[in-house]
Each structure stands twice: as structure tokens, then as C-alpha cells.
Design brief:
Number of domains: 2
CATH architecture of the largest domain: 3-Layer(aba) Sandwich
CATH class of the largest domain: Alpha Beta
Number of helices: 12
Radius of gyration: 19 Å
Largest sheet: 5 strands, parallel
Bound molecules: N-carbamoyl-L-aspartate
Structural class: alpha/beta
Number of strands: 9
Distance between the termini: 13 Å
């Protein structure tokens, strides 16, 4: 079995079989990560550049660790301390790096479509680590892996994606993935943070009522308010957002069942999630982070072993 694609640009262009293959391979790598020696030689002789044009903690460390656990050689690029700040174009920067015999590019960029552009112009395999408000495929894959681990399936699972849907590449990739795998999706948040035609365009239900949504779902995937991507006022204050859409212990305790609480991080404690919810046993936020390494190992391994 191999992936149907040379690059991981988004979930949109993956098949159901691709997703299942990545998740089952990640399961095997998760086992490797429980061993005393957490390293395998699979990517010896493969060189990978981590090209981060936008800030990141989890995703960057997770990719770097995944590469190291697979024995790849890695180099790291942060745009703030590179020649990008001297005016070099993205394509020139990447071609210079590739001329040093680099095989794969992991890229985060604030421009939606930047990895798709690169894929048309360079020979190396590209993995999208988040492009603007478009997609963040490895986040959706690690979210799916975590749901499957907790609930034993994806098909038929009711997932609520709550918060700033409008600016969220995590929401986009999750919606594509969950729809392909037969889960049921509701997006919930204030009307100003939910794209108007999302129901028809992406085949999801829309709710503006947090309590009803929580009562319906098995999993709540809670998103950060992306203030850095908002150029107008979309709600009156963070305090008011918290009062209407923040997840509190009280609201969770009022439900008749225990739901799984997820968040891709970074969390704004006290805005979208109250502190005691974040630290409760219902929250699987740190399991998501742990699973991220195994999932990224699977993606790197499968793309580097792909025969054209
Ligand atoms: C997210 C991102 O950067 O898209 N974080 C992540 O990668 N875990 C979400 C966010 O920034 O809120």
C-alpha cells in the first residue's frame, strides 16, 4: 500500500484509503515511541528542511522529533532569522536549500496556498504544516488518531468544532477528514466567526448554541480565537466570548454524558476553555500532542517510501 499523492498539501486531496493508511502506520510508530529506544533507521540518508515562515511551538518540535526518531538529517529555518527578511523570494530560498541535496520540505506559511505553489515548482516532497487559513493536514490526522484511540472509531462519531471557524485551518482540515471518514460534524460559534455558506460548501451542520451542541456531541474540538488573523472586530470582547462560548466545568457537568475535549493548542486559558476544563481528565490535549509525533512519523515515512 502506498499514498496516492507525492505531497501532503491538505486533507482535501487525500483518499479515505490514504487517511486509513496514515492512521494505521501511526499506530505502529506509536508503539516504537513506547520502547526504551525510540528510534528506527527508516529515514537514514533522507534530509529534511523544516521551513517555518510563521510561529510555531508544537508543530515544529513535533516534526523535528518525528524526523529524528526516523533517523533523518534535519535542518531548521525560521524566516525571522533568515535572508527572507532581506527580500529573498520563497522560491529562491527553497531552491538554494534544495541545491544542498535536501529531499523533503516541511513548510508553514501565513499565505494560504504557499505549499501548493512550491509543489508546482520544485522536485522535493512537500508537507504542509499549516498554510494561512487554508489547511493544517497533520493536525487533523493527529486529531483523528486521538478520537479513534479514545472512542475506537471515526465512523458515526459526533464531532463539534467550536470557536473561530472562519480563521481556522485546523477546522478546514478536520471537516474534510471527518466527512471522508463518515463522522458527523457540527460547527459552533458566534455567527461572525462562521463562514456563511459553510453548510452547503463543506457539508456540515451549523449551530450558534453552545449548550445544545455540547449535549449532542461525543467530541468537542475547541479552537483558539485567532486574533492575529482578524482585521475587524468580530465580537465585543474576550470576556463576552468566554461567557457565551467558553467551555466551563459547570456546562460540562450539566451534560448527561462525559464528552472528550480536544484543542490543537495554543490554548488561551479562560477564553475558549476554562483552566479547570483544560486540566481535567476529559481533556486529551496532551495526548493529541503525544500522538502528533507518531502521526508525523507516519506521513514522513509513507511519503519518503513512495514509488513514483
Ligand atoms: C494551530 C495552528 O497553528 O494552526 N496550532 C497548531 O498547529 N497546533 C492552531 C492555532 O494557532 O490556534
Amino acid at each position: 500500500m502506498q499514498l496516492s499523492t507525492r505531497h501532503l498539501l491538505g486533507i482535501k486531496n487525500l483518499t479515505k484509503e490514504d487517511i486509513s493508511l496514515i492512521l494505521s502506520t501511526a499506530g505502529q510508530f506509536k508503539e516504537v515511541l513506547q520502547r526504551p529506544v525510540k528510534k528506527v533507521p527508516s529515514l537514514r540518508d533522507v534530509t529534511i528542511v523544516n521551513l517555518f515562515y510563521e510561529n510555531s511551538t508544537r508543530t515544529r518540535f513535533s516534526f523535528e522529533l518525528a524526523e529524528k526518531r526516523l533517523s533523518a538529517d534535519t535542518i531548521n529555518f525560521a524566516s525571522s532569522n533568515s535572508s527572507a527578511s532581506k527580500g529573498e523570494t520563497l522560491l529562491d530560498t527553497v531552491n538554494n536549500i534544495l541545491s544542498m541535496k535536501v529531499d523533503m520540505v516541511v513548510m508553514r506559511h501565513s499565505a494560504s496556498g504557499a505549499p501548493h505553489f512550491l509543489a508546482k515548482h520544485i522536485p522535493a516532497a512537500i508537507i504542509n504544516a499549516g498554510d494561512g487559513v487554508n489547511e493544517h493536514p497533520t493536525q487533523a490526522l493527529l486529531d483523528a488518531f486521538t478520537i479513534n484511540e479514545k472512542l475506537g472509531k471515526l465512523k458515526g462519531v459526533k464531532v463539534a468544532i467550536i470557536g473561530d471557524i472562519l480563521h481556522s485551518r485546523v477546522a478546514m482540515s478536520n471537516i474534510y477528514l471527518l466527512n471522508k471518514m463518515g463522522a458527523k460534524v457540527v460547527v459552533c460559534g458566534p455567527p461572525t466567526l462562521i463562514p456563511i455558506h459553510i453548510k452547503e460548501a463543506l457539508n456540515v451542520e451549523v449551530s450558534y448554541n453552545l449548550k445544545e451542541t455540547l449535549a449532542w456531541c461525543d467530541v468537542a474540538n475547541v479552537l483558539r480565537i485567532q486574533l492575529e488573523r482578524q482585521n475587524q472586530v468580530l465580537f465585543s470582547s474576550l470576556r463576552e466570548y468566554n461567557l457565551t462560548y467558553g467551555i466551563t466545568k459547570e456546562v460540562l457537568n450539566s451534560l448527561k454524558k462525559e464528552i472528550v475535549v480536544m484543542h490543537p493548542g495554543p490554548v488561551n486559558r479562560g477564553v475558549e476553555l476554562d483552566s479547570d476544563v483544560m486540566d481535567s481528565k476529559q481533556s486529551v490535549i496532551l495526548q493529541q500532542v503525544e500522538n502528533g509525533v507518531a502521526v508525523r512519523m507516519a506521513v514522513l515515512y509513507l511519503l519518503s517510501n513512495r514509488k513514483n
